[in-house]
Amino acid sequence: MDRRILKTRRTIMEAFVSLVEEHGFEKITMQAIADRADVNRGTVYSHFTDKYDLLDQCIETYLQLLYESCMPDGDPSKIPSKAFLLRAFEFLERHASVYSTLMTNKGVPAFRKQMMKMVEKSIKEHIDSSDVGPSINREILVQFLSVAVAGLVEWWIVKGMPYTSTEMVDQLMIIIEHEWPSKWNLAQNKEEDVCYS
């Protein structure tokens, strides 16, 4: 795609996100987007059929940028999970205003849904390229980690990123790598001993 076209699309998307942050999605008009982007309304319509199409393409673009920032050469097998997570959190931190607007604005529930799909896809690709023991069901592991990571990212963004990227990833890795099953079994055995004594 021509650089001028890409630049115009990016300018329109940036204008759109800033208007969503200020007024909410429902109140935005195509004319307001054109005015903010400093282009005529016909230019906006030449790239997007309406504001719903703009929203869909905006979500797809920003999620793709997030995904690409985490994957060297787009190959999930080349990056360990901690490095992948750190790249994702750092990217979100650098672009906090955009992702915060898309994540927290009431008029953009589609962003959360698409982000969840992207997280699930990324985790599945990583698990598929990793050595997971035979006792662990891969599908259940993907779902568990996807919900946990996506929920944690959403909480972190909604709360205004109260911890650094490094702190978030360090804590997440401690939680993921912690031997919860063996600890839980030990606690369960102690409870059984108390019950039968």
TrEMBL record:
Pfam families in UniProt: TetR_C_8, TetR_N
UniProt keywords, alphabetically: DNA-binding
Gene Ontology molecular-function annotations: DNA binding
Record feature DNA-binding region, as residue ranges: 29-48
Cited InterPro entries: DNA-bd_HTH_TetR-type_CS (IPR023772), Homeodomain-like_sf (IPR009057), HTH-type_Tx_Regulator (IPR050624), HTH_TetR (IPR001647), Tet_transcr_reg_TetR-rel_C_sf (IPR036271), TetR_C_Firmicutes (IPR039532)
SUPFAM superfamilies reported in the protein's UniProt record: Homeodomain-like (SSF46689), Tetracyclin repressor-like, C-terminal domain (SSF48498)
UniProt keyword annotation of NADP present: no
Domain called HTH tetR-type: residue spans: 6-66
PANTHER family given in the database record: ACREF/ENVCD OPERON REPRESSOR-RELATED (PTHR43479), TETR-FAMILY TRANSCRIPTIONAL REGULATOR (PTHR43479:SF7)
Name by which UniProt lists this protein: TetR/AcrR family transcriptional regulator
Species per Swiss-Prot/TrEMBL record: Cohnella terricola
